[in-house]
Amino acid sequence: MKEDKNQKNQTTVSKSIEKVAKVMAKATLAYDFSYKEFMEYYKMHIVKECKQAKPRATVVEISARTGIDRRFVAPYIMADEAKLKPSKVDLIFEDVKAICQKKDTFLIPKIEDKQSFEVVCRKHANGSLTPKSIFIELFRQGKLRDSGEYYELMKPKHNANRLEKAAKGMKKVSKQLVDSVADQDWD
User: Which of 69, 122, 144, 146 could cross-link with 126 by S-S, CB 3.0 to 4.6 Å?
Assistant: First the structure.
């Protein structure tokens, strides 16, 4: 009987975790932030919460409790902000912008040039992402558009509007999550 109750409670917990994960997945896609950004903040905060709950806990104890590699526990405890690495797509776009600025143009050749989009893509994502998939993502973000044999940098104004919408949307999602857990009994 007790085992059935435990199983039922575990199922309830799993379903709740899945619902939170689904909300975050939808928010990640809707508001254009990477799951890596979310995960870095999540890891930082779980370590800080663990340390706050048990101030005398060692790095190894926190690692065992959270499942986070012990090498990263101390930096998370000390951090005020998560250390985020740019994505491959972001690195490629930064290189494309630098090439365009150096050449004083808004165009980058797609292929057949030492400083083509394809070459930049191979430099940062060889084998993991195709130049076409990278372009599609940069187009979706409003950063590049197809211009025949070239890709063209788009004006950053479009991106500012997207970021404003993302900021408002994420603020709303985070408030809803905070409000939904505020009523919970954590003991």
Answer: 122
Strands (E), 3-73: none
Helix (H) / strand (E) element for 80: namely none
Q: How many CB atoms lie within 10 A of CB 23?
A: 14
Q: Distance (Å, rounded) from C-alpha 52 to C-alpha 29?
A: 32
Q: Strands of 150-153's sheet, edge to edge?
A: 107-109, 150-153, 144-147
CB 46 within 8 A of CB 68: yes
Enter the tokens of residue 172.
């709303």
Judge whether 113 and 78 are in contact, CB under 8 Å: no
* Cα–Cα distance for residue pair 156/144, rounded to 1 Å: 10
Q: Position 80: which residue type?
A: D
Instruction: Specify whether the backbone of 81 is left (phi greater than 0), alpha (psi in -120 to 50) or beta.
Output: beta
| Tokens 């709950």 sit on residue | 53
Distance CA 90, CA 138 (A): 9
Taking the complete model, does pTM exceed 0.90, yes or no?
Answer: no
